[in-house]
Design a protein that fits this description.
Layout (H helix, E strand, L loop, with lengths): L1 H24 L6 E3 L13 E6 L5 E5 L11 E3 L4 E3 L9 E6 L5 E5 L10 E4 L4 E4 L15 E3 L5 E7 L3 E7 L4 E6 L8 E4 L5 E4 L9 E3 L2 E3 L2 E5 L2 E4 L9 E8 L5 E7 L4 E6 L4 E3 L13 E6 L5 E6 L7 E6 L4 E3 L11 E8 L5 E7 L5 E6 L2
Antiparallel strand pairs: 1-30, 2-3, 3-4, 4-5, 6-7, 7-8, 8-9, 10-11, 11-12, 12-13, 14-15, 15-18, 16-17, 18-19, 20-21, 21-22, 22-23, 24-25, 25-26, 26-27, 28-29, 29-30
């Protein structure tokens, strides 16, 4: 009996060991996967700079890539395949996209249409329309760097106004009205909205240490505009010589800003309604040295950052802040001899994370979905 029991135990141990060997020899789990393959692939021949997700979950991207006729276009992912959105002829680069509560898509940039207006265009589900109230052409090199929409149906754009120069404007359905004027040449670098419809905007092209004037108040790098009035979130008080480049707002109205200071270090700071504070300190620091290019926030207020050289390692990463520490979401499953430069991240309504950008060697654009 004793020998039989020993034999049974040995047999079970061998089975478990074999199963363990099979698991350890299997390929590691892949977390990032591109959207589309084969005949359903995007095949973007240039970087992707902009991405939005409509209320139905369709994904739209644009940037420096062109169609077979040589025209920039907006590409749509419907869950199965990529397609070109409409057939408008654009000459330039699409820098920004937005979508509203009705699923309409807005595009801006140095997008010169057949009417020679580098202005905002709207896709209503059937056709593209130019949203312009200016009969003459714009100054050379002008365009729109940022768009944003809120739940109240407002559309905001950084664009050129003959009456006020480069400004942040609001579209009322028939005309643009400037709500903040006096931007310098390169305009706004990022815009977002909160649940109450407030608009946040920031810019990164000011020389370090310089200030901007907002309703007579000197502030550094960041502004907030709501209902036509502007007030400052003075990031310069606690973070001198800082330039901000990205902003995001969580479900509770907390504002997060990414940028860098004069020492070359990159950071993410949080505004709680009264003051700014660092998102991390000490051993939990992200230690980003070469740039944070996109930030996104999930439904649980976890913060995600994409950039270069996180955790003191020179590489391209997505990192997650769970309100206690950072963890790495390494960008895997990419082509051989390539690195993935992420320009933008977005969450869909169900909490899926998407990243878009380009591969550094081939300069081809990509859109990938993160799976846990």
């Amino acid at each position: 009996m004793k020998n039989l029991l020993t034999a049974c135990i040995l047999f079970i141990a061998i089975i478990l060991l074999c199963n363990s060997c099979k698991k350890s020899s299997s390929a590691p789990a892949t977390h990032w996967n591109e959207l589309g393959s084969g005949t359903n692939a995007l095949n973007a021949n240039g970087p992707i700079n902009a991405m939005v997700i409509d209320p139905s979950g369709n994904i739209y991207v644009a940037g420096g890539f062109k169609n077979n006729s040589g025209w920039p276009y907006v590409a749509k992912w419907d869950g199965k395949t990529w397609s070109q959105l409409g057939n408008i002829k654009l000459n330039g680069t699409i820098k920004t996209l937005a979508t509203d509560i009705n699923g309409h898509i807005y595009a801006g940039g140095t997008v010169v249409s057949s009417t020679l207006l580098p202005d905002v265009i709207e896709w209503d589900g059937n056709k593209w329309t130019i949203l312009s109230d200016t009969p003459n052409s714009f100054p050379a090199g002008s365009g729109t760097n940022c768009l944003a929409t809120n739940a109240q149906g407002d559309l905001f754009a950084e664009r050129y106004f003959y009456s006020g120069g480069l400004s942040i404007g609001k579209w009322d359905g028939s005309k643009w009205t400037p709500i903040y004027s006096g931007l310098q040449t390169n305009g706004v670098s990022a815009m977002t909205v909160d649940n109450g419809g407030g608009l946040y905007a920031t810019r990164a092209d000011y020389p370090l240490g310089s200030m901007i004037s907002l309703n007579g108040v000197q502030v550094n790098s960041m502004i907030i505009s709501s209902a036509g009035s502007c007030t400052s979130l003075d990031i310069g008080a606690n973070y001198p010589n800082v330039v901000t480049s990205n902003i995001a707002v969580d479900a509770n109205g907390n504002v997060y800003a990414a940028g860098n200071n004069s020492n070359g270090y990159c950071y993410i700071a949080k505004w709680n309604g009264s003051y700014w504070s660092p998102l991390d300190t000490g051993h939990t620091q992200l230690n980003a040295a070469y740039g944070i290019y996109s930030i996104a926030i999930d439904q649980s207020s976890n913060v995600y950052a994409a950039g270069v050289s996180f955790f003191d390692t020179v590489d391209y990463y997505v990192a997650k802040w769970d309100r206690n520490e950072w963890s790495k979401l390494a960008f895997d499953n990419i082509p051989t001899n390539e690195r993935a430069f992420i320009n933008i991240m977005k969450f869909d309504a169900t909490g899926n994370l998407y990243a878009a950008g380009y591969y550094t060697n081939s300069n081809k654009g990509f859109v990938a979905k993160y799976t846990k």
